[in-house]
Recover the amino acids of this structure.
């Protein structure tokens, strides 16, 4: 990628994950100029990890062809519980030992740039709002579908961070208060307990006990019973796999309706590995939303897959840096 | 009430209900100077109704001792489906025949003042945010508990109206997607189907079939099985009534947790007739919230009853007029 044709100022976005760090330089129009990936090495503790964050940032700038002095500010997206405004990680489940960590100021110290911290799913939502599937709109709700179900909400161009940095924990709304499934967080009945990739696999394993003839059984025997495998078997016509995907669409529609009846955004987006299930899965979600939502939002709210893929996090984090430190447009 | 000691400019707030119109003049600091109530006469159609709105406004100004020229702008809070920005009522269930009505501009024409339309529960939330239980805070979620369950959300001082004016329909989040109770809106599993005063009475009638010895049976025979009566019998020690109130608190806590995990406000408020159940009921809600919410919001989010009572609607509507047309402070 080249810097020619890009518009200053430039922002460095860094997306911290439990396994990998993704980083890139983004121009003032939200176009990525570079993109690099490094292992987080989370298990080696926060000192190593923060050095890796800084290294990922430096490499992204080097790859962009820009001079370090041309970087106006840095945005860091991170998983886990945090105090966004204080720039602190509190108790991130996927980064053991990184608790009570002033990650923003530590990183700012290493990079020598104004730095902003944001929740990773919030940052991804901001990326989609800025230059992705929500470009040009005023509000959106994003569900990130992976091991868990995360979320980000933008209203009037602002991330709903929440008073205690717990805004948009959309996987942890209660959709089945009585008799609900156990969530990874320890509570019951949460959307994540039904609709995450992990939950889909768990539901498949339970269902296989009653329907051992399903072709999912072979996947289980081959140690390949993943969300992707279930989608593939559904596409191939396996009745159990089809039912599991159908139910997953409904669970996501329930979550979407809850957000449509509280935020009522321009658009509801889904991102993450599960959107590999493709257009038919999205159409099932849409159909279930239309059946459950109030008539006006049911007919008017757009429901789409996100567009930025794995780049949403660093692009959005760069956008947060631009919003925090850039000149207002 | 007198105008002395009040701070200009002054705003007229009008709260349209299916049965009554409440109106008052409010000063720039959110203090009400007058308050009048008139029958809506909704059944006589929108022409009569809009004249009644205007008359309620004129009487409120007359009672305030202000001259009409001192009123800067008018805010109208209304129930029902609407297009807030267009100033239209679309299909309000409690105002039959008032559909597709340009109520804002019709009222503005009669009163000769800049006029803003807002959803009634949103207006009440804004009132509580401006000068009530949320004064001085940045964000709040309000649940209005009556025949139905309404809601209002303020984030960073802004009402979340939603793209299609369906923001904060907090009674219509899905808390029991499978096997849920039938809601007045026709869908199933909504919070309102569990936690409204109407739902409480319905649950009591169902439970009485299994427990006919409950003292609620006498209330039913006396045609006095109301939410208030159930609370009274609970206070008097009736086991069924106690269980019903206990369950209601839990349902409200489920709704609160869903909003705490999406909006994560400074404070969650409850208003409406059911808050007559008093401090013990509120403590039950708080206790259930603490048991279900994530640790940080569970321990830090304030949970309170609203403070403005039946005046929240017109005070908040006046506040919306101030926000729309007043000079920024």
């Amino acid at each position: 990628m080249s810097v020619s044709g890009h518009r200053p100022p430039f922002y460095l976005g860094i997306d911290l994950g439990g396994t990998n760090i993704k980083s890139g330089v983004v121009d003032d129009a939200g176009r990525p100029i570079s993109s690099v990936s490094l292992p987080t090495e989370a298990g080696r503790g926060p000192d190593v990890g923060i050095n890796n964050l800084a290294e990922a940032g430096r490499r992204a700038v080097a790859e962009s062809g820009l001079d370090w002095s041309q970087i106006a500010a840095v945005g860091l997206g991170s998983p886990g519980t945090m105090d966004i405004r204080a720039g602190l990680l509190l108790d991130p489940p996927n980064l053991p030992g990184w608790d009570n960590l002033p990650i923003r100021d530590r990183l700012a110290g290493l990079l020598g740039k104004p730095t902003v911290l944001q929740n990773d799913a919030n940052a991804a939502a901001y990326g989609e709002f800025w230059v992705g599937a929500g470009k040009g709109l005023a509000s959106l709700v994003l569900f990130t579908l992976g091991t868990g179900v995360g979320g980000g909400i933008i209203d009037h161009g602002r991330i709903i961070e929440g008073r205690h940095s717990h805004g948009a924990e959309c996987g942890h709304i209660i959709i089945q208060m009585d008799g609900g499934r156990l969530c990874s967080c320890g509570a019951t009945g949460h959307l994540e307990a039904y609709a995450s990739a992990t939950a889909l696999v768990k539901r498949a394993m339970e269902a296989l006990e009653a329907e051992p003839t399903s072709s999912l059984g072979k996947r289980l025997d081959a140690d390949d019973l993943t969300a992707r495998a279930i989608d593939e078997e559904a596409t191939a016509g396996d009745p159990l796999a089809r039912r599991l995907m159908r139910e997953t669409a409904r669970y996501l529609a329930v979550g979407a309706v809850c957000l449509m009846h509280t935020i009522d955004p321009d658009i509801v987006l889904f991102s993450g590995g599960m959107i590999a299930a493709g257009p038919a899965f999205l159409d099932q979600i849409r159909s279930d939303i239309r059946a459950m939502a109030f008539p006006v939002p049911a007919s008017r709210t757009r429901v789409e897959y996100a567009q930025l893929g794995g780049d949403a996090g660093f692009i959005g984090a760069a956008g947060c840096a631009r919003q925090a430190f850039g000149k207002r447009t």
